[in-house]
Amino acid sequence: MKQLNFILLLLLCTFLAVNAQQTVQLNIHHKLGEADFAFNTEAQNNLGNSFILDRLEYYISEITLVHDGGQEIEIEDFWILVDASEETSIELGMFALENLEGIRFHIGVDPDHNHLDPASFPMGHPLAPQAPSMHWGWAAGYRFLAMEGESGSLLNQVFEIHGLGDANYYETNMEISPSVENDMLVVSLDADYTKILTNINVGSGLIEHGETGEAANAVKNLANVVFSPSNTSVGTDNRITPSQLRLYPNPAVNGKVRVEIPSSLTSVNMKVVLTNALGQQQHSFSWTKGDTQMELENLPSGLYWINLMEAGEVIVSKQLLVK
């Protein structure tokens, strides 16, 4: 009977995990160094070349979410045309996951779609015809990156970088700690566009269109050095997210589990509340200010939710199975 109950418990845990759908949103904060991005604003690259921009667009394709201990969700048939002049806040969809740990994506358009006719996509689709154009022709495909402006000491030298080509389809990969806003997991990235021009001399202007040379280097820089997890806070729930709340071991053995949060997230008047699968409170424990971890012992077998609470409100929850 005990073995049967445990099997049923595992099935319930699996059912809840599969059905724990969460909406994920991607925010990209456009930057020029430490400053917010703006057209016709002077900036410098790492070579000390001054420049201003009046166009910056690029494609993102093949997004993968890494979650719950390295599991992966590939978001199919999804493209983003990023325009740095506009806020980039995109809902990626609803997915069965608990902890979102990382994100991968490519700069450009995947080879399977890069050489299709833009007119084959409906109006408003990222791969449909754009004005100004983001397409170079069926043989070359889409512009992965279009960067235009003026440079030089007097900011009067034209520079244009249009990078394209299947060989320049580079991947970005990073660990993340999403925030929680309006019941969504929000992935916030900073994009410092001065770094697109890392080691690219635009001091006397530059015109590079194509698949090689500085056009290729700019696309590679965009994928490799431009993006980083954002420290921007949005909303009041950002201080602790499911990925920052650690329970181990999970499943817990012999009724014992350690609860841990980062040192930067300790708070006043916090407590841990255990609820069962039906949301009924089973136990509660006080959390001492300044502590980063506590051990819970003598927990009966069952499926629980560990809830961290402050001022009577749940600020983060995570599932726990006790054998």
Report on the biggest sheet.
9 strands, mixed
Helix content: 10-25%
How many helices in DSSP terms? 3
**What sort of overall outline do the alpha carbons produce when their principal axes are compared?**
elongated
Classify the secondary structure makeup into a structural class: mainly beta
Strand content: over 45%
What's the alpha carbon Rg, rounded to whole Å?
A: 24 Å
Can you give the mean pLDDT? 86
Question: How would you spell out the order of helices and strands?
Answer: HEEEEEEEEHEEEEEEHEEEEEEEE
Number of strands: 22
Low confidence ranges: 14-19, 232-238
Distance between the terminal alpha carbons, to the nearest Å?
14 Å
What's the number of structural domains? 2
Short description:
The protein is mainly beta and 323 residues long. It is built from 3 helices and 22 strands. The strands form 4 sheets. Strands 3, 4, 5, 6, 8, 9, 10, 11 and 14 form a 9-stranded mixed beta sheet that branches. Strands 1, 2, 7, 12, 13 and 15 form a 6-stranded mixed beta sheet that branches.
Task: Describe this entry's structure for a reader.
By secondary structure, this protein is mainly beta. It has two domains: 22-229, no CATH class; 239-322, Immunoglobulin-like, CATH 2.60.40. Helix content is 10%, strand content 47%. The protein contains three helices and 22 strands. The strands form four sheets. Strands 3, 4, 5, 6, 8, 9, 10, 11 and 14 form a nine-stranded mixed sheet that branches. Strand 1 (21-32) and strand 2 form a beta hairpin. The radius of gyration is 24 Å and the shape is elongated. The chain starts with a helix and ends with a strand.
